[in-house]
Amino acid sequence: MLLIKNVKLNGELTNILLTGNKITSIVKDLGDFMDIPSIDGKGNTILPAFVDIHTHLREPGFESKEDITSGLKAAVAGGFSAVCPMPNTNPVTDNKYIVSYIKMRARESGLARVFPIGAISKGLKGDELAEMASMQRAGIVAVSDDGMPVTNSNLMRKAMEYADGLGMITISHSEDKSLAEGHANEGANATRAGIEGISRVAEEAMVAREILLADSLNVAVHIAHVSTTNSVDLIRWAKAKGIKVTCETCPHYIVGTDELILNYDCNAKVNPPLREERDRQAIIAGLLDGTIDAIATDHAPHTKSEKDREFALAPNGISGLESAFGLCYTALVDSGLMSLDRLSELMSKNPSDILNLPCGELIEGGLADFVIVDTDKEYEIDSSKWYSKGKNTPFNGRKVKGQIMTTIVDGNIVFNRETEERI
Q: Which of 298, 334, 369, 376 is catalytic?
């Protein structure tokens, strides 16, 4: 047994008793629990640990960028108890053997839970459906060709229908490649920087296609990394009609705009690209009114040498597991735009519900997966101190509030900032 004492839950000081990997009771009065081994939360806030339904652990195949162990260290340091790695590995996660390998490596790490996402198509080529049923038996929880959109609409239709029959959701990387040949958002800042632009319609056209397919089939679809005003409007319209669509956005679309490309910082190069201020405001509005269901990191680590190139040659991606909460808490909660409870829903319960994961809530009888946060602590983001191999973020030096102090997964302390011990 373990007692987590003196923590704030829903704004009130309380104590939480753990037995094994379960939360046994949540009590204000310590009573008979005084002699149980304990952790003093020092009045900090306790939340359900975060669940990232869109991340890239890079293994197998790209271990120079990240491997499963380094990625999971980054996850727990960022307050995440569960992550869902995308299938654009090498070999592609399009069969049960790669799924089993990822699950095995995650167990060896003994840090966060890993729920792999399998490929829609074999080799992410968009020609033939991957072996969804056998991958599901091996442990996948959804399918996606993230990074490589399914351009064949009929194949996407079949994928959505087949995945639904297996009780899984299809996650859409919504991008029309023929409209996305540039390297930054098509607009004034790309013009100023002399960088070829990507039309926002590249995202929006595919969002519309997925919505119409979901409507015609009466099945669910999840839209990844929403970034534009019109995408938010389309999803809002679809939800009003009762179409089974959910979506996510990412911290960098909540706090960043394409102004970050003006100094040619390749760490700000991401796909979809950072958009304009009006899009950022639309994303926040979508989070506030429930149009956007979840916040996912799209953690995409790269090596320094890969990012230290001219803008057009650098790969897309921002490393985000260790900065996600601080960026979101500062922009959304500390600013007074939303409650901490709402942010918790967006980062924990809702992501879990979308993929039917056994996580995301802090309740008696539930899994002992939670995070203790010092919401008053202000600090500067410094990726040189991150556990992730990927230090690529355009937010270095940004002051944020909300520091992760302790992460507990399955009843075990997997990260404790105060001990200053490396994981």
A: 298
